[in-house]
Amino acid sequence: MKPFNITPIDRQLTAAIQAKIDNLNKPKGSLGRLEEIALQLCLIQQSTEPSLAHPCHLLFGGDHGIEREGVSVSPREVTWQQMINFTRGGGGVNMFCRQHGFKLRIVDVGVDHDLSRTPGIINRKIGWGTRNFRYGPAMSDDEFDRCVSIGADLVDDCVAEGCRIISIGEMGIGNTSPSSIWMHLYCHIPLKDCVGAGAGLTTAGLQHKYDVLRDAVERFSRYPSPITHHPSPITHHLSPITYFAGYEMAAAIGAMLRAAELHLIILIDGFIMTACALAATRLYPQAQDYMIFTHCGDESGHQLMLRNMGARPLLNLGLRLGEGTGALCAFPLVDSAARMVNEMNNFQGAAITKYF
Q: Which positions are annotated as active-site residues?
């Protein structure tokens, strides 16, 4: 994987930014989380006047070999059907992008269907769905590298248009399964607590999903690891990422890392995108400085994963649609934080006595 130059946020401006926030014509701290978000926005952009110019939303699509094991109530063809639906503006992600002024890019990284002639879909297909990780790695190291590059390149395209804030979503039946396993392996949480119903599995279906994922983890634990030969931190973390990832998830990781490298504001969506953020921050811990976690979804274990990352979500609406919809729903709060620090008057300008 091409290395990223992701630096921790420079916090030297913290005092100046906090002074500006505290001097707005309001009781100190009275706008709560909005003040915390405003501080983070300013630090990311190293400015006391943060900009949310040209918001972009990347939606990566890909299918998963593990879906063949019956771990999802939704059939595989829903992935490509929804991808086409998105091009017609009929998805939840389309509605929220229109509402909040996000430019939507729909990207086929690994859907098991020929979408190359579908207008509105960017064709970056690596394969026709990943391999079944119950029996071996979902993808090769080379495929992972190519996915990361695709995600990074799409971020570059957004930045070339003036983007300063980005959100990322996914479409891929079965992608709660690799997310659950990453959570288990990286957060050291029992697998049983990491496996949820996804799009609506029954109790029996949930038990079957757990059995399948337990088998996959056990096989992974016996799989020849590159760690023995290349004991670097990157290799150590790449092994479980490449072994279980979906193509769309690997592309999302690449997008997150490139966005952090370019000091963009990154809105992190629900369970799957939080799992991708977890993987990304195992590669580059400093990338989390640039992330705003937007909501805690309805998938079992999401709250545990957020807590393990020290992340406080902005919303808890019981969402489990994916597509990046939670991030888009939370955007108005981020916008309010930026407007607060940019547009509110201070005590002196408003001719109000500062009483603290």
A: 323
